[in-house]
Design a protein that fits this description.
The chain is of the alpha/beta class. Helix content is about 40%, strand content about 20%. It is built from six helices and five strands. The chain has a five-stranded parallel β-sheet, sandwiched between helices. It starts with a strand and ends in an 11-residue tail after the last helix. Bound molecules: 4'-phosphopantetheine (PNS). 4'-phosphopantetheine (PNS) binds near residues 7, 8, 9, 36 and 72. 4'-phosphopantetheine binds near residues 7, 72 and 101.
């Protein structure tokens, strides 16, 4: 049985993340989406909020479990018996950092392999940071994140539905 973990901050989850979740869920028997619980990082959404948003969006994927984790990713992967780490690569700018993490994780635990999925073209520009930046100024984020979480993101910035810019 192949069990993989797709880790990330997911603050908030974007359509690019969802694309990686769906494609990797097709490749493995069981996929854990691991939401990093990093209290040092100033997150827009609490870890519980991030977990429940991803759960809502992935209810149609029976082999996906959404969890939170803290500490080292390789330690958590070993704890849940996952021997594959999935990461998405958008552009060459992601590559250097991702390579460094993957190689370090492999030195820490050679039994765990990192697999990179290239982001689908239509999401190659997308990041949680960009979504937050647009939302903070009332920009239209409806093409960037699942419909069910659009209003929750605006709420964090005190923007009510209808106040955001028209496209
Ligand atoms: O969505 P992100 O912020 O790019 O995800 C980064 C993440 C969560 C994969 C990475 O920060 C991570 O694995 N953190 C857990 C701590 C750890 O294992 N650090 C060593 C590798 S940086």
């Amino acid at each position: 049985m192949t069990r993989a973990i797709y880790p990330g901050s997911f603050d908030p989850v974007t359509n690019g993340h969802i694309d990686i979740i769906r494609r990797s869920a097709n490749m493995v028997d069981e996929l854990f989406v691991g939401v990093l619980n990093n209290s040092a990082k100033n997150s827009l959404f609490s870890v519980d909020e991030r977990v429940s948003m991803i759960k809502e969006i992935t209810t149609d994927l029976p082999n996906v479990r959404v969890v939170s984790f803290d500490g080292l990713l390789v330690d958590y992967a070993r704890e849940i018996n996952a021997n594959i780490i999935i990461r998405g690569l958008r552009a060459v700018t992601d590559f250097e950092y991702e390579l460094q993490i993957a190689q370090t994780n492999h030195v820490e635990n050679p039994a765990i392999e990192t697999i990179f999925l290239t982001t689908s073209l239509q999401y190659s520009y997308l990041s949680s940071t960009i979504v937050k930046e647009f939302a903070a100024y009332g920009g239209d984020i409806s093409q960037f994140v699942p419909e069910t979480i659009v209003a929750r993101i605006y709420n964090k910035f005190g923007i009510k539905k209808g106040e955001q810019h028209e496209q």
